[in-house]
Amino acid sequence: MRKISPISSSRKALLVAASIAALGITGCANKVSYETTGSISRTAPQQSVQQQSAKTVAEMSSGELRNAVDAYGRQYEANPQSKQVGLSYSAALQMAGRNEQSLAVMRQIAIAHPKDRDVLAAYGKALAAAGELPKALDTIRRAQTPDYPDWRLYSAEGAILDQMGKPEEARALFQKALVLKPNEATVLSNLGMSYLLADNLPAAERYLRAALQQPDSDARIRQNLALVIGLQGRFEEAEKVAAGALSPDEAKGNVAFLREMLAQNNTWSKLKEEEQEG
């Protein structure tokens, strides 16, 4: 098996640009997305009986997401030390791209719950989303206990290491997480995104397909799988996959936008040139 070398900065930028093109059009995602781990709720606060079968935050349109952020914000203002409200509010803010505010919320929740591993994992994720990767890594590692390890913390640490350009270390941690929690969708998804950033699209597709088959998979996993399929030029198949998470028009628009972006930027030619140069 060919060893996959760490992705170059220019190649990584091309793939991230492709992910923005494929996912950003929905208003629900704006970058390569690692999955939230742990018991952090991604379900919007319920406003009516009709919403009790509500979408998760990951499945919402931009308008629905704004409403969810507003609702969680009111709950947080009323009870700023509530663990579950704080975790949910922070997660919704991250989905909306408001990473600095998400981090500010998690700082307050971490002060109120300094030894809670769910909180520390979410705090580390918020630090990473805000670009503070060394602090994020330190926070996650302090929360882990060797005698009783937490799969969620292994997964969170792996996601941070991947963003720091250490894919082999990251994948070793994802595998440790899977030993503790076999077939966990969020960990399989993180593995898939790790291979996407390494430009190993077949491996990325394999793990994302496995993640999507799990009962706890969500819309972001489906959209990331559609992205990986589209990046391999299988646009019709990508549209069908995306249609499971988006409206038909949104799925078609995403794939058309991805196709146009790849054509305009000559992405695959650039990737092949780097492959030959390497």
From TrEMBL:
InterPro entries: TPR-like_helical_dom_sf (IPR011990), TPR_rpt (IPR019734), UCP035836 (IPR014596). TPR repeats lie at residues 151-184. It holds the Pfam family TPR_16. The keyword rRNA processing does not apply. It comes from the Bacteria. SUPFAM superfamilies: TPR-like. The keyword rRNA processing does not apply. Keywords: TPR repeat. This is Uncharacterized protein.
